[in-house]
Amino acid sequence: MDFPELKTERLRLRMIEDPDLSRLVQLANSYEVTSRLSGMPYPFTEEYGKFYINRGRNNDPEKVVLWAIDDGTGLIGCIWARFEDAQGWTGYWLGEAYWRRGYMSETLRTVLRFGFEQRSVTSFEADVFKDNPASARLLHKMGFSEVGEETIPSEGRGGMMVSYVRLALPKAEFVDLAEAEG
Amino acid sequence: MIFPELQTNRLILRAIQPDDYARLRFLFSDFDVARMTASFPHPITDDWARGFVTRNHSNDLNKDVVWAIDNGTGFIGSIGAHEIGETASLGYALGKYYWGRGYMTEAVQAVVNYLKIERCVDNVEACVFLENPASFRVLLKNGFTPTTVCVRSSVSRGTHEVEAQEFKLDLAQSVEQPQLAVGGIR
């Protein structure tokens, strides 16, 4: 199966490649970024970056897709989705310099649409740390609602246990509207 | 030309003085500061710090103006406008203890206003490493727009080539932002 490259209004969602390494480390080696994620270590070293790229490239795209988010100058963040029959999961990060510009909004919307329309997903799930209101707002805007609360170690915070909220989005509640952003 | 001292709500932008040497050396010896600049070495040597003070004290002010940023306690950072003509480029550095307080946003606004009003500059340029979102915010708050991404060397990191975002501010179209302190000539 071919890698499912996607396009948003301003961005290209493409396979991560070896030449992304320096940009990946430049943006991901940030406590502001990794402390909001469960699985990305801080410091985010070049060695880890190579592992991250390899893993991203070698996924079976039927089951897991990792997209590099590219604004035309190169990688500015990543988004992944996992598919298991009718259930989808997603997660994402963006380099801090690219926050607050609506980039993740159009990216996430495009990936959710892909899951619902191309992959027979009927419900997506996403997790967000309780102290990350910006990301929670984004998920709510897409139509996600809270289904539970748990804790998980954050590698970006040195393995510290962090509370997170589980959110779910049934297909019928997906708000697929760019205009909803205002 | 008399040195163009500027004032903001909280800051004085003044000429760098020999007295600033110790504070400058102490604050700019921090790798977290140096790594975000293109030209600062790390570690900083006596010669480099003295050179910074004397070079910027004896600039041709028609072309290059480098200000000490002073919050009333002394030197806390520096900001420079370079190759002043129809365009000018901006560079700045602030001691880490003074980050996160809006000081540099204030200083950039004062310098931009000076360049616009006193020097009739049309376009101001600046370049920021991609891992420096705080500096992105300083420029975005001042109305700069990101243009292209380029590769710059960073002396403090060795010869490493680092990706950087170029920013541009078109002063012909810019509107002064009233919520910020307005810098003026003293």
Verbal overview:
Chain A has 182 residues and is of the alpha+beta class. Chain A is built from five helices and eight strands. Chain A has helices at residues 21-28, 31-34, 46-57, 103-118, 133-142; strands at residues 6-7, 12-15, 64-70, 75-84, 87-94, 123-129, 145-154, 160-170. An eight-stranded mixed beta sheet of chain A has the order 1-2-3-4-5-6-8-7, with helices on both faces. In chain A, β1 and β2 (12-15) form a beta hairpin. In chain A, α1 crosses α3. Chain B has a nine-stranded mixed beta sheet with strand order 7-8-6-5-4-3-2-1-9, sandwiched between helices. Chain B is an alpha+beta fold and 186 residues long. In chain B, β4 (75-82) and β5 (87-94) form a beta hairpin. At the A-B interface, α1 of A face β8 of B.
Notable traits:
heterodimer, A: 182 residues, alpha+beta, eight-stranded mixed β-sheet, 5 helices, 32% strand, B: 186 residues, nine-stranded mixed β-sheet, 30% strand, disordered C terminus
